[in-house]
Amino acid sequence: MFDLSDEAVVEGWLxxxxxxxxxxxxxxxxxxPIDPSSLVRWRKRIGKEGAEFLLQQTLATAKRNGRLxxxxxxxxxxxxxxxxxxxxxxxxxxxxxRMCERLVKEARKIGVALRQTYVRVGKEILLRQSRYAHxxxxxxxxxxxxxxxxxxxxxxxxxxxxxxxxxxxxxxxLALAMRLLAQQKESKNKLYSVxxxxxxxxxxxxxxxxxxxxxxxxxxxxxxxxxxxxxxALHGNPYDGRTLSGASRWSG
Length: 252
What we know:
The mean pLDDT is 89. By secondary structure, this protein is α+β, with helices and mostly antiparallel strands. The longest helix is centred in the N-terminal third of the chain and has 29 residues, at 36-64. The protein is globular. Strands 1, 2, 3 and 4 form a 4-stranded antiparallel sheet that branches. The relative contact order is 0.13. 49% of the residues lie in helices and 13% in strands. Among the domains are: 75-85 and 199-252, no CATH class; 92-191, no CATH class.
């Protein structure tokens, strides 16, 4: 409702007695209930089926209490919007540096000794690139971006030589790194976030913000009182008119 991060939700819960009462506590709590990362793991654990079950139970509760009535369901509105992902604006320099960090960290976990990690050097190059870009010295900034790309290629090749059969997580990161190294300005299905590779660049024609980074979502609501009765993630940025045919299925 308030577009908060997981950390902000936990911090707000600690200060807001209404949120605590909504969660079933009878007395005011003074300690964090969970670690913010637990919310991420919980969402992954329940998956798509769990989220649909929670929505069904919410609507069933509203029907039992007389809040959602048959007259509300006589007319349904279906529309699409963009569910933005909480990522920074993607630039090549940041993507190369972040991918290199993730690869080095995962390689260390499995005991792969790299020839060079570039941890300190990579930070210095990224800082230099951002300063050049801020000063509009674009040729110098592009040279630093190229250096970061070269470093990422070295790390990928070093891991490939020393770990012929990487574990699934490292293999997935290596595949993303190869995809990042190969993509060009005109490429389709670009990688915009290392931590959220499912993010897509979507243009909805808004004057305020031309491009949004996230996933297109179809939402079905009642015309009366705006009850949300169905939500569906639409990957691949399909045309809005083609999403209507399946709306009756996922809106129930």
